[in-house]
Amino acid sequence: MRKIVIAGNWKMNMTPAQTKKFITELAPMVAGLDKCDIVLCVPFVDIATAIEAAAGTNIKIGAENVHFAESGAYTGEISAAMLSEIGTEYVIVGHSERRQYFGETDTTVNLRTKAALAAGLKVILCLGEVKEERLAGITDEVVAMQTKLDLAGISVEELKNVIIAYEPVWAIGTGLTATPEQADETCGVIRKTIASLYGDEAAEAITIQYGGSMNDQNAAELLSKVNVDGGLIGGASLKTDKFTAIVKAANA
Length: 252
Ligand code: 13P
Hints:
Blueprint: E1 5-9, H1 16-30, E2 37-41, H2 47-54, E3 59-63, H3 80-85, E4 90-93, H4 96-101, H5 106-118, E5 122-127, H6 131-135, H7 139-150, H8 156-159, E6 162-166, H9 180-198, H10 200-205, E7 208-211, H11 219-223, E8 230-233, H12 240-251
Parallel strand pairs: 1-2, 1-8, 2-3, 3-4, 4-5, 5-6, 6-7, 7-8
Bound molecules: 1,3-dihydroxyacetonephosphate.
């Protein structure tokens, strides 16, 4: 049985005060819904507040990015040790918005993943094809290549702390969702790639989420697919009722 993980990615939303209010409201709504892990990945300045507000609940807290160096002259960046010292449990790495707007490549995604794992963080590693790649029929090749490059040099033991989030870039924030069949198929390609790198047991065990306009309306169908082990949710994670509905769909 694979672990189902429903994670919110707040992106650049919510102040610390809004964070406290949100988690205080959400906690009783998702209490006891323990068939999935519940994670909120929040802006750096919200993390401490989020951890405090989520203490004693079933909500876990993550960051949205991490730098690969231990320390040094990297103005504006945050290290894995900084995150882990304040109790951060998860971190998103390689989100398509980081790749698109901030010049992240598979090489830097790989380095960030390694740094996060070395500091004891659990990584939500994002990958997925852009629209032109889907239309050109090369989605499978693209996600296989990203999987290989992003995980290069990561051991099978370290892989236990990695979740893959398959996020087709054309489905992010667009209201367009991959069909459940597309999500299942491409998550399956990623799983096969993991099998080729790490063996069948690791491939069967790894959690692979779908992300891209997942919401309270489409979550149940997406989550019903055998290769879809949860969701990484943007817009719908900013509303307690919508996010709770997705968590409930994962607990059905
Ligand atoms: P939306 O759910 O807003 O499409 O965002 C998905 C996403 O990017 C999660 O990381």
